[in-house]
Design brief:
Elements (H helix, E strand, L loop, with lengths): L1 H30 L4 H10 L4 H13 L5 H14 L5 H10 L4 H8 L4 H16 L7 H14 L4 H10 L2
């Protein structure tokens, strides 16, 4: 009889911790868009085990607090508009967050190709003002490296650099 009582007492604080973590996670998700892997790491940092984290995440998904497709779409739009990142860099960061590859492809398809090329061209032109190069070949190399570091596709960068000549 005493063993049963002690087991029930151990489960009660555990349930309270799960409820508390669920409330905190709901508040976090309501404040800003989160993906499931971000929430999983938060829950584990709050002391929840793997199985408890999964149950909390499933509850958040069922109540539409977490939606990785919605997160990927907003991540793509924000990084494109505000950080001026290219598709390669955005996709790499989404893969780091364990977003499904199909979701990444669909989120990247939301970007307008003409707007994307225009943004790459403007970014390269604005960066060109700050580059000191010995000759045109050196200038193209530096602009290419800059564009690649921003996550733009090499073929598009080549095309834009050859258009400006």
């Amino acid at each position: 009889m005493e063993k049963i009582d002690s087991q029930e007492e151990e489960k009660k604080p555990e349930k309270d911790a799960i409820k508390s973590a669920l409330g905190r996670a709901m508040a976090l998700c309501a404040k800003s868009e989160q993906c499931s892997s971000d929430i999983r790491s938060k829950l584990e940092s709050w002391g929840l085990g793997s199985s408890e984290s999964i149950s909390v995440i499933n509850r958040l998904i069922s109540e539409n607090f977490i939606n990785d497709e919605r997160y990927a779409g907003s991540f793509v739009r924000d990084k494109f508009r505000h950080n001026k990142w290219g598709k390669v860099k955005i996709a790499a960061h989404l893969r780091l967050k364990n977003i499904d590859p199909e979701v990444i492809v669909s989120a990247l398809s939301l970007l307008d190709d003409d707007q994307y090329r225009q943004m790459i061209s403007e970014t390269l032109k604005s960066h060109r003002k700050f580059i000191k190069a010995k000759n045109a070949y050196d200038l193209k190399g530096k602009l290419l490296r800059f564009g690649l570091s921003k996550g733009f596709e090499s073929q598009i960068i080549y095309d834009i650099l050859n258009e400006t000549d």
